[in-house]
Amino acid sequence: MEFFASPYLTDQKIKSFLEESCTRLCDWFATTDQREISPRFSELPEIDPFDEGLAPNELLDDLQLIMNGSYQPSHPGALAHLDPPPLVGSIVGDLISAGLNNNLLAEELSPSLTKLERSLCRWFAGKLGLPKSAGGVSASGGSLANLMALLVARSQAKRLYDTEIVVMASIEAHVSISRAIKVMGLPPHALCQLPTDNEGKIIISSLEENLRKIQSEGKKCFAVVATAGTTVRGAIDPLAEISNFCAKEGIWLHVDAAIGGVFSLSTSTSHLLSNISKADSVVINPQKVLGITKTSSLLLVANKADLYACFSTGFPYIEPSSDNEAQGGELGLQGTRPAEVLKLWIGLRQLGQKGINDLLDGSLKRRLYFYEKINRQKFKVISGPLHLLAFTPSSIDDIHAKEWSMTTKSKLLKNKFMLSRPNYKNRYYLKAVMGNPHTTLTHIDELIGILNQCI
Ligand SMILES: *Cc1c(COP(=O)(O)O)cnc(C)c1O
Question: What pTM value is reported for the model?
Answer without folding.
Answer: 0.98
